[in-house]
Specification:
alpha+beta; Heat Shock Protein 90; 3 domains; five-stranded mixed sheet; 66% helix; disordered N terminus
């Protein structure tokens, strides 16, 4: 039991990000949203700091607000990560055109400064996040060139001279503008790249957990095939031979039939020994195997084996633990699992398994596995209960120490 405790303590140091993969996306979304707001803030500041207000300013404010809403919606479309083309080409075009509209409107009057170019540049940075790496920087270069051309063409059409095309409203903005031009695409790409890494790691952990279960099934299948395959092949040959000699040598056929019966009984006994050996794994070893599966799935486990159950109970206790692990991996978003094994006031062995990440109606609580185990525990004189409590799913199995093998 001591190795199980030590390994569980070591695993508690490998805590995943707060809130798991959902929490990671929330932090990513908030970070990218903050960058979007940072891109829209200087133009809005220059608009309100101008000291005058007319119809054109109101139109500019409304168009900018629509563009900001479109950017926020687009951030939600990027959840699948970097370079996955999760957004449509139409969505990208609409986003960029909505963002370029305030820039074109601001370019029509030289009184307004060039920080309005941050709005389409923010949108271009968002679009770049969802492009493959080889196209991303070409897109940003093309977007920058398009913004310059929009400013030049609109300003020229309105009679603005060259010296009036590129003013900045304040000294503070003159520092923020080049900083944001550089930071916005780099920071957005980094945030979404990090999110994609988290998705990949989570998928790898799930695959490792499934691989561990598959390897155990293959091991048992290999052992069963080794035993059954040999016996069944010999039985088939002997029965064929008995059939051939039955008419001309009945005594020989009877001898072969008796040998076949002995082989069948031997095969049955070997199979029983194999199953008993598979079942006879101690609960401490079962706990170690469960810890390995949970660790592969990125789930922390706290284990307390305070009781030493008799070997007769290992099968029922191990079956409950394996069923619980299967339900946790398949049907929950658990981040923490607690396993306790102790002796209760009546002297019975009590196994408790709890996990968080429970859906609104936890699957597996009334599945066939739990129902079957409940019947087995009842037949052994014990009880098995499943319940939810404050967002946790709790399995509790109680067995008297005198319970026989089921």
């Amino acid at each position: 039991m001591e190795p199980a405790k030590r390994s569980a303590e070591d695993r508690t140091l490998l805590s995943e990000p707060h809130g798991g993969i959902r929490g990671t996306w929330q932090w990513t979304w908030v970070s990218v949203l903050a960058l979007v707001v940072a891109g829209y803030a200087p133009p809005a500041w220059s608009l309100f700091a101008a000291g005058t207000w007319d119809v054109r300013d109101s139109i500019l404010l409304v168009v900018s607000a629509v563009s900001l809403a479109a950017s926020i919606v687009f951030v939600g479309m990027l959840r699948s990560g970097l370079g996955q083309a999760t957004s449509s080409t139409r969505a990208r075009i609409i986003l960029f055109l909505l963002a370029a509209a305030p820039w074109a409107l601001a370019s029509a009057t030289p009184v307004l400064s060039i920080e309005w170019g941050l709005i389409p540049w923010t949108a271009a940075s968002l679009i770049a996040v969802d492009l493959p790496a080889r196209r991303r920087w070409w897109w940003l270069g093309g977007a920058l060139l398009a913004l310059v051309l929009i400013r030049v063409v609109v300003a020229a059409c309105t009679g603005t001279n060259l010296g009036q095309m590129w003013p900045l409203s304040t000294t503070i903005v003159s520092v923020l503008f080049p900083t944001l031009v550089i930071i916005l695409p780099l920071a957005m790409v980094f945030q979404m790249w990090l999110w994609q890494v988290v998705i990949s790691l989570d998928a790898a952990k799930s695959e490792r957990a499934e691989l561990a279960r598959t390897q155990e099934r293959l091991r048992f299948a290999s052992d069963l095939h080794t035993i059954q395959g040999h016996h069944l092949q010999v039985i088939a040959l002997k029965t064929e031979l008995a059939e051939r000699v039955l008419s001309r040598d009945p005594d020989k056929a009877a001898t072969l039939i008796h040998e076949t019966q002995d082989l069948a009984r031997e095969a049955l006994e070997d199979t029983r020994r194999l199953v008993r050996g598979y079942r006879a794994v101690s609960f401490a070893v079962e706990a170690e195997n469960a810890a390995a599966v949970l660790d592969a799935a990125g789930i922390r486990m706290t284990i307390d084996l305070a009781a030493d159950p008799p070997p007769e109970l290992d099968h029922l206790l191990g079956s409950l633990l394996r069923e619980a692990m299967t339900n946790i991996i398949r049907h929950s978003a658990a981040r923490q699992v607690t396993i306790t094994l102790k002796t209760d006031e009546a002297g019975s062995i009590a196994l408790g398994i709890g996990n968080d990440g429970v859906p609104e109606r936890p699957r597996g609580a009334d599945g066939t596995g739990i129902v079957s185990l409940t019947e087995q525990y009842r037949a052994a004189g014990g009880t098995l209960t499943a319940a939810t409590d404050n967002g946790r799913f709790l399995l509790r199995g109680i067995l008297p120490q005198t319970a026989g093998v089921t």
